[in-house]
Design goal:
There is one protein chain. The protein has 255 residues and is of the alpha+beta class. The protein has one domain: q2cbj1_9rhob like domain (Jelly Rolls, Sandwich), CATH 2.60.120.620. It has helices at residues 6-16, 27-42, 51-54, 82-88, 91-100, 187-193; strands at residues 18-21, 48-50, 71-75, 106-109, 115-119, 127-130, 144-149, 160-162, 206-210, 215-217, 226-235, 252-253. Helix 1 packs across helix 5 (91-100). Pfam families: PhyH.
């Protein structure tokens, strides 16, 4: 079976709110990125976000408690060197997103995502159902993230669950709690959650997903740390709102 075309991938992204692209990163490229990420994790190269900072379910209560220095994210991946910059601006990512944005130039956000996500055993937290756009401030909501699996990802080690089609739904504020997580106690929400899927990713696979697509992740029940590299993009005609965190650092156009 031949690989799907860019047009087919974009059609799937538009229809279900996410699309998997298999073997997107070459083995040498993935291994180099993985080695660099492991180095920065081992040496605690700043900037870093710790699980204790967010207090999601399963996280340590503070940085001083047991497991308190468990890393959640290595922040500012784009600023961690040429290898990360090359990945974030990869021409194949640009080509797919340019097609999705109907010819408009994709722009890498250096504020949102732009990180190595880690999921640790024992102290890695559970992430509830949410839309990424909840804390972002842009002139429109058509942003897409690119998530690279640096190792194998599956349900038991904290892989992402997605709810197909949820990016096109008009959820009211009552569907979310005070932290803007999708409420699992509401019958109408439960109907959506019942549709969730957890696609397994092989090392080097990528998932593109819309910022309004509901997604979640369990804790890591294995003995190994899971690592992923994620960046977010918007078309050039969509801009961060002045004075917000989204506008706190310039984006990088993928021309």
């Amino acid at each position: 079976m031949s690989a799907p075309s860019v047009a087919e991938l974009v059609a799937t992204l538009r229809e279900q709110g996410f699309v998997i692209v298999r073997n997107f990163a070459s083995p040498p490229q993935r291994l180099d990125l993985l080695a660099a990420a492991q180095h920065d994790l081992e040496h605690a190269v700043a900037p870093i976000e710790y699980e204790a900072d967010l207090q999601y379910p399963g996280a340590p209560t503070s940085r001083e408690s047991e497991g308190g220095l468990t890393v959640r994210r290595l922040l500012n991946a784009y600023g961690r060197g040429p290898m990360f910059q090359a990945w974030a601006t990869d021409p194949r990512i640009a080509a797919l997103l340019r097609n999705y944005y109907e010819g408009d130039t994709p722009v890498l956000s250096t504020v949102h995502h732009n990180c190595v996500m880690t999921k640790h055993p024992a102290f890695g937290s559970l992430t509830g159902w949410h839309q990424d756009i909840r804390y972002w401030s842009f002139s429109d909501t058509d942003l897409v993230s690119c998530w690279l699996a640096l190792g194998r990802e599956f349900a038991d080690n904290g892989a992402l669950y997605f709810i197909p089609g949820s990016h096109r739904a008009a959820f009211g504020p009552e569907c979310f709690d005070e932290h803007k997580f999708f409420r699992a106690d509401l019958p109408a929400n439960q109907e959506w959650i019942a549709r969730a899927v957890c696609p397994e990713l092989a090392p080097g696979d990528v998932v593109f997903f819309h910022c309004r697509t509901l997604h979640a992740a369990q804790q890591n029940a294995t003995g190994s740390v899971k690592m992923s590299l994620v960046h977010t993009y918007h078309p050039e005609h969509i801009h961060p709102l002045p004075g917000t965190r989204s506008a706190s650092a310039p984006g990088v156009p993928l021309r």
